[in-house]
Amino acid sequence: PTISVMAGKKDWDGYRVAVSDGLRRVFFLTIPASTILCALAYPVIRLLFVGGKFTEADVPMAANALVGYSVATFAWSGSAILARGFHAVQDTRTAVMVTTPMVVLFFVSAQVYTNWDPDGYIGLALITSLCGIIAMGLLLTFLHRKTKGGLDLYGIAVSTAKITVASLAVGAGAWFADQALEPFLPGGKGGALIALLVVGGGACLVYAVLCYLLRVPELWTIREMFRKPKVPTGATDDGGAVS
Q: What's the confidence (pLDDT) of residue 52?
């Protein structure tokens, strides 16, 4: 909504800030989500799907596919923000002109890959992610050129670099922690749930600490979003009358 409001007011400085900050906040949440999801793919699949005809033997294939798709979580989310940026300025064509060739590229790449390796499901997942990342990069480039004054690419790049460093460290730590903890956990969904709560929860805390040490500003902006607004002293709920 903020992006549309700024565009409607012709406040292009506010518009570029809203889009740039929106991307940074999305990356702050989705890049670590990708790395943690990749690290804990096995317990995630085990918890959600094992049962009935889906057995423990099916977990590795599904988990590996999940890793392939998770790589581009940030790209899909970033593309949604960028698409809203185009729609806010009444441009509904550019997003379609970017995504349509990506569908064609995916189809051709998938056909070539499956002809080369019919059982290469991981490759298909990675191709999907790659197309998503390329699409987001193109949308970012076109919106930057279209925006008066351009987007804050430097700020986005610096923030994303810090977020990526913290996320990779957390993802690696989560993977090693899961491997070390697995022999001590019960099998099945119970063990998977414990792993996700303990390792996943710990990874989130470590990520917050690393972002604090790296001075990632989104840590504070995200926190402010979830804070309840303070009610002025003496104000009431019925229109602000004071006693």
A: 87
Q: Which residue, among 177, 218, 222, has the nearest Cα to 198 in the 3D structure?
A: 177
pLDDT, tens only, 210-237: 999 999 999 888 776 666 555 445 544 4
Sign of CA dihedral 197, 202, 203, 208: positive
pTM as predicted? 0.85
The answer to whether 37 touches 117, Cβ cutoff 8 Å, is no
Separation CA 117–CA 127 (nearest Å): 13
Alpha-carbon distance of 20 to 16, in angstroms, equals: 6
Supply the pLDDT for residue 240: 47
Distance CA 193, CA 70 (A): 20
AA letter at 243: S
Tokens of 27: 């990356």
Residue 54, SS3?
A: strand
CA angle 120, 121, 122 (to 5 degrees): 90
